[in-house]
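Let us work through a complete example step by step.
Step 1: write down the sequence.
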Amino acid sequence: MTVTDPVSTRVNIALLGVRTNAPVQRTGGAGPSDDGHLLFNGEGAAVPLNPQSPYVITNGRLLLDGADIGMDVEPVKRPKFYDLVTADGTSYEKIAKLHGKDVLATTVVQTCIRYNEEDRCRFCAIEASLNAGSTIAVKTPKMLAEVAEAAVRLDGVTQMVMTTGTSNGWDRGAKHLARCVKAVKAVAPGLNIQVQCEPPANLSAITDLYNAGARSIGIHVESMDDDVRRRWMPGKSTVSMDEYRGAWREAVRVFGRNQVSTYLLVGMGEDPDEMVAGAQELIEMGVYPFIVPFRPLKGTLATDVDHVPAPHRGVLEDISRRVADLLVAAGMKGSDQKAGCAACGACGILKTAGG
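Step 2: predict the structure and record it as tokens.
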């Protein structure tokens, strides 16, 4: 058996994927990629299922070009709640998905005002899964409460993520999120919930989300470089960095230090040093910078039109290690968040690197 560095291995499989079957997987949607959900040495990982990958899973072990590299791997089991339907015949799986081993995730509104070709985020395919019929446009509070109760009872789900496409209102989707959170907490009071939305125009919506029962929040900027933002997110970039910083500070005040996070995507052309400097600024604010690689996702403009490849593994590893070191120095760990992407960690490398 050849034991390799776990951080380097996680970087490689995040980009190259593995050859295996996975009962729990996700295609399309807002991202970050078309992934299968697996457990590597007991930790959740969302990785591409790639029949050309040099990594293969055989008899519960990860092999690289035929050599055992010292990792136990098992697929996340298909949850029991997937077998259920609502009274009107809607599959629970179309309402919420299992992510990792114990995270329930849903996009409460599967449409976005920015999804036209001029404004659309180039890494996003939020409406692709809707067009494919694998989800429904709007999940009601009642629906989500029904599914969440079943997922907790039947499958031991411990946390939930609720994200949303952006709406036309001043709240940018936060009001419906709050209604959904309140309904879920009424039937599953022990379930920790993270909400995700753009900065609302009126920051009082952040308090409303907390009062509804959410205990973590993701306000995702993807890049702090305005040139990158205009190129990759023409509609979303009209929300200024000042608005993001104001929302992050208010969210830290309401939710607490290290209960606020934001995605930073590696592979959109941002300078690595500037990305790490941006992560440092976020950490000083009390915001967790969740470093995730851009990976080609069918249905996105970046993949289907621009043909952008995944980032170089050396760049992803360098940035992930440096940001993990900053997080360790600040005493911030993703696992200390009550719920959400940083708490799960499956789509990134930071948890493996110590953050």
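Step 3: interpret the result. The first strand starts at residue 25 and ends at 26.
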